[in-house]
Write a structure and sequence with these properties.
Layout: H1 7-16, H2 50-67, H3 74-88, E1 99-103, E2 110-113, E3 117-121, H4 122-127, H5 131-146, H6 149-158, H7 163-171, H8 177-196, H9 200-216, H10 223-231, H11 241-245, H12 250-261, H13 276-281
Parallel strand pairs: 1-3
Antiparallel strand pairs: 2-3
């Protein structure tokens, strides 16, 4: 039997091929605008509006879904969207049309794109020891979207593209050469971004913001800490390669997060570590995993 391709190579293949995205995240569109200009984008991406941000994010999410499709498990998808939406409502951008999904890959990883798209792998979901760990991971990705980390990174990669090409991409629903060129440049830059990773300072900031979002939502802020502790022992393990290459060392993240948290959360009580709904969905934990607790925050039921 042929060995499965690692997720990073599938992202590369998907970015270079014409692949239809899942209907949940939309398809990669091309747009028309007859005006032509030699002016470069420069800082243009910093000034795009929310709908334009959502379009970029949807196209990048479509690229990621071309590498690994959504997991065919409606119960888990509903659960993740319920949990993710609850966390997002406690962020600084609750009004975005947040969408969360589990992709069918055994790798350990999570991705977010501008506009409120968050994807985690099946491998990550199955390795979470309790719900607060999963909440910590989702809150970290939500923080990337809130702080527009990916847009800032794309800005550096696309600044030499034609401004008229970008305007064409955003303007209407059918493509021409200008829009197609920008769409191609965007996907190429996105492929490079998700293989190389964000700046280290962006990851540290998302860690700090993530624990706050989790705590606001009623979850233990130490869920992300637990995930990072697990990652310290996985440097060479199969399935963790892309994550470990695109993030700072887990020990560095732990040290910085410990310094940032200090004693701020020592007096918090009644925050959730686990919930029966999560225990029922995940694979049975290892014998050394922390037993589930019965306390959980109230949040809207899955629809």
């Amino acid at each position: 039997m042929r060995a499965p391709r690692p997720l990073w190579s599938l992202i590369l293949i998907a970015a270079l091929s014409s692949t239809a995205a899942s209907a949940q995240f939309g398809s990669i569109g091309s747009i028309v605008n007859k005006a032509r200009s030699a002016q470069k984008i420069g800082e243009g991406l910093r000034n795009i509006n929310e709908q334009e941000e959502i379009k970029i994010g949807g196209d990048l999410a479509g690229m990621l879904l071309g590498a690994a499709p959504l997991l065919g498990d409606p119960a888990k998808q509903r659960y993740l969207n319920s949990l993710g939406s609850w966390l997002a409502q406690h962020s600084e951008r609750p009004g975005l049309p947040w969408k969360f999904g589990i992709v069918d890959s055994n790798d350990f990883n999570a991705f977010s794109t501008p506009g409120g798209y968050v994807l985690i792998t099946r491998g990550l979901f199955d390795r979470m020891r309790n719900e607060s760990e999963l909440a910590g991971v989702l809150a970290h990705e939500i923080a990337h979207v809130v702080r527009k980390h990916h847009l800032q990174a794309l800005q550096k990669r696309l600044r030499e593209q034609s401004l008229s090409e970008m305007r064409s991409y955003f303007s209407v629903s059918t493509g021409n050469g200008l829009a197609d060129r920008f769409a191609g440049a965007l996907l190429s830059a996105g492929k490079d971004l998700y293989i190389r990773g964000l700046d280290r300072e962006d990851e540290y900031e998302a860690d700090r913001m993530g624990v706050v979002i989790a705590a606001r939502s009623g979850f233990s802020p130490y869920g992300l800490v637990g995930v990072l502790q697990t990652l310290t022992a996985t440097t060479d393990q199969e399935g963790y390669g892309l994550h470990n290459r695109t993030h700072p060392l887990p020990l560095d993240r732990l040290m910085r997060l410990d310094a940032a948290m200090g004693t701020r959360f020592d007096s918090t009580v009644g925050l959730a570590d686990d919930a029966a709904s999560f225990v029922a969905l995940r694979k049975p934990p290892s014998p050394t995993a922390t037993p589930a607790k019965s306390v959980k925050p109230k949040r809207p039921k899955s629809k």
